[in-house]
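Q: What would this chain look like folded?
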Amino acid sequence: MPEHVQQNTFSGCKNMELEKLVQLYLDQHCEQSLQAVMEAGAALVHHFARLFSRKDRKGAEREDLAQAGFEGLMKALKRFDPQRGVRFSTYASHCIMGEIRREIWREKTFDRPGWIVDLQGKILQETERILKESGHPPTLQEIAQAVNVEETGVVQAMQAGSVPLDELDISRIRSIRYESFQLPIEDKILVRQALSRLSELQQKAIYMLFYQDMTQQQVAEKLGLSQRKVSRLKYLGLEQMNKYLS
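A: My prediction, written as C-alpha cells:
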C-alpha cells in the first residue's frame, strides 16, 4: 500500500468502523465479531510494523513484527474498557507498539553504542508522546520532526541491534534543523565515536571533565589518580579525538 494512503487509514470512516466493530464484539463476544475487529485493526498493526522494520522509504514489512503487532491487538481487545473514555484505536496502538518493541528488544543480538541507545529511547519516547497527545498513530514524518532527525536517519537508528552497526548508513542520521548552542546530531555522533576509541580510563576522565564539568582535582580524587595524571589523560585523549575528527 502506498505510504500516503497507509498513513491516512486511521481517521474518518475506517476509524469509526473499528470503534463500532469493537463495541459489537464487546456486546456479542462471538467468533465472527472477533474476526471483524482483527481485520479492521490490521491497518494499525501494519502501520507500526512498517514503521519499525523498513530499511528505506519503500522498505518491506517484517513478518515477525506484524505477528507481534497482532498479538498486541488481541491483548488490547481482551483488556479494553470503554468506560475509561479512551478510544479503542488509541489504546490498541499502545498495546501493538508495546508488543512490537518487546519483539525488537528480544531479538537484539548486536551491540549498540550508547549514542544509538539514547537516540532509540528518544524516538520511542516521542512516538508515545505523539500517540498520547494526538490520539492517532504517529507517522514517520511526525516522529522525525519531533526528534529533529531526518526520516531516513530514524529508520537507520531503529535497526541498530537487529543488524551489525557497520551495515547501517550512519551518515543518514542527520539533524533536520540546527538549534542554537547545540551541535547537530551528526557532529554529536562523531564526537561520541571519537570518544569511544579512547581507553576506558581516558573516557572516564574526559567524560567527567567535559560532560560533568568537574575540575581536574575532583576527577583525580574520583579516580584515585594524581592531578598530573588526569591532565595527561586529558591531553592525550583530546589529541587522539582530534586526529579522528580531522
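Residues 111-180 form one domain.
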